[in-house]
Every structure is written in C-alpha cells, then in structure tokens.
Design goal:
Elements (H helix, E strand, L loop, with lengths): L11 H15 L6 H8 L12 H25 L5 H18 L1 H8 L11 H15 L6 H23 L9 H21 L3
Pfam families: TetR_C_33 (PF13305)
Organism: Komarekiella delphini-convector SJRDD-AB1
Protein name: TetR/AcrR family transcriptional regulator
Length: 197
C-alpha cells in the first residue's frame, strides 16, 4: 500500500485500508491506532483526526468489510433467479469470502450489526434483501421468513467457523459436506413453508 506523502493528505479511507492490510497480515491483534500508524509511516495522533481511537477504528474496519462482503456476494449471484441456485451461490460466495479473507471474515462476523444504528442499519437491509431474494418464491409468512433466515445464517456461519477452527477432522471432503448442507437447507426451507405457524 502506498503511503501518503504528508499526514495532512491522509483520509479516513487511507486509515481503514491500512488497518485492513494490517488485519490481513497479522490478524485482529493488529487493529490498533499505533500499529496502523506504523503501517502508514505516521504518528498516531494523525489518525485521531479521522477516527477516535481503537474502538472507532475497529468499527470502521468491520463496516467496510461488511460492505466488501455484500458486494462479493452480489457479484457472484447476479443474474440468478432460481431460489436453490441463489441459495447455493450465496452459500458458496460466503465460504469463498471466508477462505479468501479469513481474518476479515472473523472481524466482520464478530461485529454486531444493529437496526437502531444509522450506520449499520443499511447493511442489515442489504443482507436481508439478499436473503429475501433467495426465499421470495417460497410462501413464507414474516415469522417463517425470519426462521428460514436464522437457519440459513446459523448453518453457513457455523460450518465456516468450525472449518476455520480446524475441527473438521474426519476424512470426508469438507467441500462435499458443505454442498450437502446447502441442499439440506433448501429442503429445510420447504419444510418451514409447510409447517403450521
């Protein structure tokens, strides 16, 4: 990453990009003002002009990664309309993002999005819009839609978390198991559609 010539030319996006570069190289422990300042070749006080400390830095990084993840999934599902194809493509895109950017994925999933937060609410809406697009052809009430979203999210994020922790030690291919899980999720959604509320 190129370093700004002067601290005065530094932008918030420069700080966030440097923080993500540190995260990719060293993990979440590198998400601190002092470490990011060293990455940029500046003194820490220059960062405080853009972000108010480590908490604000971590928040800005998480929000940026969430946006990157949403764009990643959208690119990999564009042009798909069939619900099961969308579910598979979205599930694969999430796992591919986690594999390509493991530290980003961990930082993103540890940051809680909140509907009452004006910065995170739009991200939640984008995620929900995608899930609704996947589930739109099913006849789901609002309650059933929430159940289906929770099941899909829990299954995919749970699988990825266990896989990243190195806990899938049986000899069967994790790729094959993941595909079976995605197929099973489609069956589970059909079940949710049919059960009484």
């Amino acid at each position: 990453m190129g370093r700004p010539v002067k601290e005065k030319s530094l932008t918030q996006q420069d700080v966030i990009a440097a923080a993500i570069a540190c995260l990719d190289k060293e993990g979440e422990v590198a998400l601190g003002v002092n470490r990011v300042a060293r990455e940029l070749g500046i003194k820490p006080p220059a960062i405080y002009k853009h972000l108010d400390g480590n908490t604000a830095l971590r928040r800005a990084v998480a929000l940026t990664i969430w946006q990157q993840y949403i764009e990643w999934c959208q690119q990999r599902t564009d042009g798909l309309d069939e619900p099961q194809a969308l579910l598979r493509a979205g599930g694969r895109a999430t796992r591919d993002f986690a594999r390509s950017h493991p530290e980003r994925y961990r930082a993103m999933t540890q940051f809680q999005l909140n509907f009452n937060d004006p910065e995170t609410a739009p991200l939640i809406q984008e995620v929900f819009s995608f899930l609704k697009r996947v589930l739109q052809s099913y006849n789901l009430s609002e309650t059933k839609l929430i159940d289906a979203m929770r099941i899909v999210n829990a299954a995919i994020t749970g699988f990825i978390a266990i896989e990243q922790a190195g806990l899938m030690t049986l000899e069967r291919s994790t790729d094959a198991s993941y595909e079976v899980m995605l197929d099973a999720l489609a069956v589970a959604i059909q079940h949710i559609e049919q059960v009484e509320p």
